[in-house]
Specification:
The protein has a domain at 14-136: Aminopeptidase (3-Layer(aba) Sandwich), CATH 3.40.630.30. Helices cover 30% and strands 27% of the residues. The protein has helices at 29-37, 54-67, 117-133, 147-155, 184-191, and strands at residues 14-15, 19-22, 74-80, 88-93, 101-108, 137-143, 159-163, 168-170, 173-175, 177-183. The strands form two sheets. It has an eight-stranded mixed beta sheet, with helices on both faces. It has a two-stranded antiparallel ribbon with strand order 8-9. Helix 1 (29-37) crosses helix 2 (54-67).
Length: 192
């Protein structure tokens, strides 16, 4: 059983049947740019800006390399074993040293949509966050209109907790978002 505080470990490599999840390196720059980083369709519902130039991806990676020095950084590249290069990412944000909650987010390049990779990667991350780190609650949200993301969150066992009461400005549009959550107790009961 876990103590009162989480046991943070940072972005440790993870593996599933079809995927390798690992910290990003500068060597991943070209694949990230080609597979998802410069795709405005992928970024339509993401809260971070698209990276139209390879230099944008390099700057992003240099920032990640600095962030990886913290055990509170959880940001993995998604590498399908049959592809061998980065096709997306999965992350846990809003994590504090003493916080027992985290926000799950993910993105994949369009050719890898609908293959179950977001769910598979997220399951591995949830397992780490609940079983190893000791978080008590994971949550996720998606902008209204991003139905695939909502389906993924529900498939992970997350329960819908509500829609934002006011829209927020996102890439020049006013958007509402839907929120979901999964407690460690429900994870143990439903997922395992």
């Amino acid at each position: 059983m876990f103590g009162f505080y989480p046991k943070h470990c940072g972005t440790v490599p993870l593996e599933t049947d079809r995927l390798i999840l690992r910290p990003l390196t500068l060597d991943d720059c070209e694949a990230i740019h080609r597979n998802w980083g410069a795709d405005t369709t992928v970024y339509e519902y993401m809260t971070t800006p698209v990276m139209p130039q390879p230099e944008d991806v390099e700057l992003f990676l240099r920032r990640k390399l600095q962030a990886y020095k913290s055990e509170l950084t959880y940001y993995w590249g998604i590498f399908p074993k049959d592809v061998g290069e980065c096709v997306g990412m999965v992350t846990v944000t809003e994590v504090g040293k003493y916080s027992l909650t985290g926000n799950l987010a993910y993105a994949l390049g369009q050719p890898w949509w609908g293959k179950g990779y977001a769910k598979e990667a997220s399951e591995a991350v949830l397992r780490l966050m609940f079983d190893t780190v000791g978080l008590r609650l994971m949550y996720g949200c998606h902008f209204v209109g991003n139905d695939r993301s909502g389906a993924t969150l529900r498939s992970l066992g997350m329960c819908f907790t509500g829609r934002s009461q006011t829209p927020i400005s996102h890439h020049g549009k006013m958007r509402f978002f839907d929120s979901y959550e999964l407690s460690r107790k429900d994870y143990v009961t439903r997922i395992r």
